[in-house]
Structure formats: structure tokens, C-alpha cells
């Protein structure tokens, strides 16, 4: 699947060899337990995707280029995860980061060491209530890779749920505390943190805001970003605009709002003639239901930047409808792949089932825009544990 994505995104041969060999040699050994009889893993349930597939791949289109950049995220899983001396699956992340150095020469671990020490548990020697508590993901760390022609940018994601539960705290409280403790070269990243704190803590209880993840770029702090991921149960277009604009502090232009509205209608399969910005999407109860956002902090920036992740796997009709809707949206903006339309590309990628048979191959479609410089990303779950694969 990665090879096909690189090919259709127009990567040169030497770049494809670099990235596919890295995935084969360094990433695939850490993809967890074999999907025996296509059943979801019972030993380690990755929070990466809803069926616990520990890898998610994506195409990202920006205003600057017509064809996308390829990216992927993975939860490295050791052979002894949830067992013996590696109950919290700490070793695989360390090893994969180390192996990434060879093709990510700009990688810097200053921020990683800071947040790893404060947000994750690494030396648990026996089962604890937090490990078994329903609703608390086992996962603590993801690694993501943005694939460049001659290398990659490495990103690290921290899921603090287990640590927060053990400390009797909340995800937001320990993320806030860890961020406020940044010092030295990382201090400029805090320029807009107070604005973000004020906004998050002003959100109404009715929207059930849940801070899920903190992420960083593994770069020199002055070049890095801090990203705080938050989920709310509100699914109206109006609520999305409120979140993206930080309650009006960072307004979007009419062109940006129109672009997002068109994407919303396209990927959720809605009728544009009856669109109502105050109408929620069809109600669905799920651990990852609702809308997901991130707020990005950069050095010396006065306001956080925002992105919304539209959870199409919960609220669209099926993957065929999503692919057709996004394909039309991209084509109207001159965005494409090196071979054919987005729709035909996704048909090729999802070769284990018919797109119309259900939801789940597309996980999110994200949208962000800054001064009309927008980007749209499609995220895919290879559905390693899907029942379709046993038929």
C-alpha cells in the first residue's frame, strides 16, 4: 500500500526505495502480533485505529502543490508488549526512533525527552488498575513520518491516559503542567499557550471536551510545533467554526469557510440545498465519535493554529461515497495524483474489499487553512483485522 501511495504521489524511484526499505526493515517488525484468523489483537489493542490496526497512512494536499505528500503514523509494538518486563510497550518506540536517525538527520530529541518523562509510564513491573480500566487506551506513544524526497520528518505523539489515571489527574492537567515546565530553547513555544489554555478551559461541559494527545516535531525546538489534540461531541458545522477560530479570536475568511463547507458536504454525503450549519450529524455513540481538532503552537507565534479532523468513518455513508466526494472536491481545486483521480486511486489502495461495502478504510479527512493557504489530508486504515480479509 505504501509503494502504491508513493507511486501515485509522483515520488522519484530513489525516494520510493528509501522509504519502502525503511518501512520493511525498521517499521514492519514493530507492527505487533500477526492478525491470526483476522481477529483483533487481544494482547495489545492499539488506539491508532478503531480496529486496532497500528498504522495509518495519509495523502496531504496543500495549496502549494497539486500532488500530495505521503505520510504515515505507527504505534511500534514490541513482541513482549503487555507481558513480562514491557507491560506498557515502552521499548519498541525507543528502538524505532533510533533507527529513524539514519534518514532523518535533522531529528532532535530535546522535546521528546521532556514530554516522554512527564507524560508516559515506562517502568511498570506489574499490572495496575489503570492498565485494565475500560476507556483508557493502552497506547502511550505513536511515531509519525512525513516522507520527503531525500529523508523524512519524524513526529512523536503522547497519549497520557495511563499516566493521568495512575496520578489521579486528567489528560489536560498533566499536558498543561508538562508544557508549562518547558525551559531553555523551548520557551518560545509557549508564546500562545496562555491563549490556548484560556480557550480550552472556557469550553462548555455540554460539548464534553476531552484532551487526547500532545504531539511534537522531533526537531530543534525553535523549528518544532506543539500540537494539542482535543475531541468534542458537538458535530454541527457551527461548532466546528467556533473551535477552529478559537471562539472568534482567529477568524476565517469567507473563502475559507466556503471551502470547509464544501468539503463537509462532500465527504459526509449531505444535500447542499438543505445544509444547516446548526444541524448535527447523525448521532453515534463511540469512543472516537464527535469531532477531533488540534491546536498548534509555534515559537513566538501570538495565536495557535487549528485543524479539524472530520471522522468520516462514523458519519459518512460508505467509503465509496467519501472517495467520490473528496475526489470531486480536489479536482475542482486542481489537485490530483500522478495517475488518475483520487477516486480511482482509492479503489486501487482498498484492494481487500469494495469501497461501497462499508466504512473504515477512510478514518479522517482533515482541513486546515492559514491566510487562505489550505491543506486537506485523507487518512487510511489498512484494516489489517477487518473481517473482509477472511472471506
From TrEMBL:
The GO annotation for biological process reads: alkaloid metabolic process
Q: Which InterPro entries match?
A: ABBA (IPR033964), ABBA_DMATS-like (IPR012148), ABBA_NscD-like (IPR017795)
Binding positions for L-tryptophan per the UniProt entry: 56
Assigned keywords, A-Z: Transferase
Residues that, per the record, bind dimethylallyl diphosphate: 71, 155, 157, 225, 227, 229, 309
Under the heading Pfam families, the entry gives: Trp_DMAT (PF11991)
Q: Name one GO molecular function term.
A: transferase activity, transferring alkyl or aryl (other than methyl) groups
What protein family does this chain belong to? Belongs to the tryptophan dimethylallyltransferase family.
* Name of the molecule in the record: Aromatic prenyltransferase
Q: Which species is this record about? A: Hypocrea virens (strain Gv29-8 / FGSC 10586) (Gliocladium virens)
